[in-house]
Amino acid sequence: MSTVLSAAGFPEEQVRHRARHGAAGAFPALDAYGSGLLGAEPAGSDPGDLLERARIVPPVFMPERLKKLIDLAREPLYTDVELDTVVGGFASRLPLYVSAFGSTQVASRDLGEAAGRQAGRLGIPMVIGENVVPVNGYRAASDGGVSPLLGRIAAYAQASKDAYGGVVVQQSTEDADAEVWNLLYSDPVCEPLLASGRLAFELKVGQGAKPGLGGLTVLGRDAAARVAEQYATDPVFGAGSDRVLRISSPGTFTEEILRQQIRLMRNNFPRVKVWVKLHPGRDVALAAATAWAAGADSVTVDGAEGGTAWAPSGFLGQVGLPLGECLTRIGRTGNCLLASGRIWEGTRAVKALALGAHAVGLGRAALLAVDEDAEDGLVRLVESIALELRLLISAVGKYRVDALDAEDVLLPPEAAPPARAG
């Protein structure tokens, strides 16, 4: 082996890794697949993360606090902050939802159902991600078995004791081929949610972990052969490996295609709410405006920090707009905007809410919480975030979550809007 002098800061090990593994070296270590949560750099370590660099800035004078004092006939406390809101057409006890996780091993049936039970108890929406049916199959309630998809829905519905929250089911191109929405719309498992207006379908246009790409997962060769009719595969891990890359189509969208898709959803499934999930593309503001104009109840933006998905390493830190940039480009429109991407505590959540999001999604954080404690882990995580939300919203002199505004956040100088003349 030749000897090469190392240069300070040069990623020698990554180069050696690619020299050893070829095309497989473009991905994270294969032994992390299905057992770990992948994603962009941790919070605080990415200099391009606008939300981490922004600050929450309380004012000195607080007229809203005076109004609250008069209403209560006493000095208001952080415990007086009201966090209930509307998330994508659903009444929600908190401005939070469980972000989509789909068919991968780390989001297995046990974790998915645990997340469903706890989200139902909390009265917050839960999104079920793509490819659950193409990978695991669909069994109707009348078949006597429960698939991972129906198991998550049933767990949520059974734990939910009032009119808060709801279940959202994504559909990718392969899900569309499997007619997932058609199956669910007539399944008795979904009827309680349909009857209470708490079921939504989410059209998946893209995701934060892989902007511009479809789903990528790893399968054994035997499993890949079983789903060969639904998916393409690529033996990037080498001829000697038992595992191959399974490739999903990202779908093809133009403004008109997106409008027509939403109209079809509204016409074909009139009892459900219509959600649209966008990846953090440079035209995200136009895409969101197009979806709302076509009748979408909600648009979700998955920032480049988002996602637990398997992706080439370069995508995780170098492709797509960070969540804060997405929010500043879209701005506050009056339409329901949901945001996900590295949300796990209250300060980042408040910044996103102040910049225009109606609610924020818990993805990796939710999975970690239910893995830690399948009965109460997510509930405890959400309790901690709710406390921080009340403290922070009270600190800026406001007492409803929807009263937050961009004035409550100091953006880095290069991200702040230009000052008005005069």
Question: How does this structure look, described?
Answer:
With 422 residues, the protein is an alpha/beta fold. Helix content is 36%, strand content 15%. It is built from 17 helices and 15 strands. It has an eight-stranded parallel barrel with strand order 4-5-6-7-11-12-13-14, surrounded by seven helices. A three-stranded antiparallel sheet has the order 8-10-9. Strands 1-15 form a two-stranded antiparallel sheet. Strand 11, helix 12 (284-293) and strand 12 form a beta-alpha-beta unit. Helix 4 (109-122) packs across helix 17 and helix 16 (364-372) packs across helix 17 (377-395). The chain is globular. The protein starts with 11 loop residues before the first helix and ends in a 12-residue tail after the last strand. The model has no long low-confidence stretch (mean pLDDT 86).
Considering the chains and any ligands shown, give keywords for the structure.
alpha/beta; 422 residues; three-stranded antiparallel β-sheet; 15 strands; 36% helix; 15% strand
Helix and strand topology:
Elements: H1 12-21, H2 50-53, E1 55-56, H3 63-72, E2 85-87, E3 90-92, E4 96-101, H4 109-122, E5 126-128, H5 132-136, H6 148-159, E6 167-171, H7 173-177, H8 180-185, H9 191-195, E7 199-204, E8 216-220, H10 221-226, E9 232-234, E10 243-247, H11 255-268, E11 273-278, H12 284-293, E12 298-302, H13 313-318, H14 323-330, E13 337-340, H15 346-354, E14 359-362, H16 364-372, H17 377-395, E15 409-410
Parallel strand pairs: 4-5, 4-14, 5-6, 6-7, 7-11, 11-12, 12-13, 13-14
Antiparallel strand pairs: 1-15, 2-3, 8-10, 9-10
Helix pairs in contact: 4-6, 4-16, 4-17, 11-12, 15-17, 16-17
